[in-house]
Amino acid sequence: MTWAPTAARSASHRLPSTSPWRRSAPGTILDVVEEAGISVLSSCQEGTCGTCETPVLEGDVDHRDSLLTPAEQATNDTMFICVSRAACPRLVLEL
Ligand code: FES
To answer: Which residues does a 6 A CB cutoff place in the pocket of ligand 1?
Structure first.
């Protein structure tokens, strides 16, 4: 499973498609983002508070949160990166 954040609408992080942004080991996207030194708000880390909500620009998500309705999940417009994961080879997030 690999994923790569991309440019945001305002201040953004365009990250290279090389390590550490390619991830095949277990771990959350929040873990990877924090390991890369990008500050993302988070609190519960259980997919219940909504703090880490992150827009999805491209890709499919394996939603594991307790917040989005099935209809919201189906749009793949947003995700909670503390628990949800990529369900495709490349997931592009607005960070
Ligand atoms: S930190 Fe609470 S939903 Fe992700």
So the answer is: 42-45, 47-52, 65, 80, 82
Domain ranges of the chain: 1-95
Name the residue of 29, 33, 39, 48 whose CB sits within 8 Å of the most ligand 1 atoms, as the mutation to test its pocket: 48
Which helix (H) or strand (E) segment holds residue 35: the answer is: helix 29-35
Write the residue with the smallest CA distance to atom 3 of ligand 1.
47
The pLDDT score that the predictor gives to residue 81 is 97
What would the two tokens of residue 8 be?
């945001």
Q: What is the pLDDT of residues 47-65, one digit of tens each?
A: 999 999 999 999 999 999 9
Strand order in the sheet with 78-80: 78-80, 53-58, 92-93
Give the pLDDT score at 22: 57
Considering the domain delimited by 1-95, tell me its CATH architecture: Roll (3.10)
Q: What is the 85 CA–ligand 1 centroid distance (Å)?
A: 13
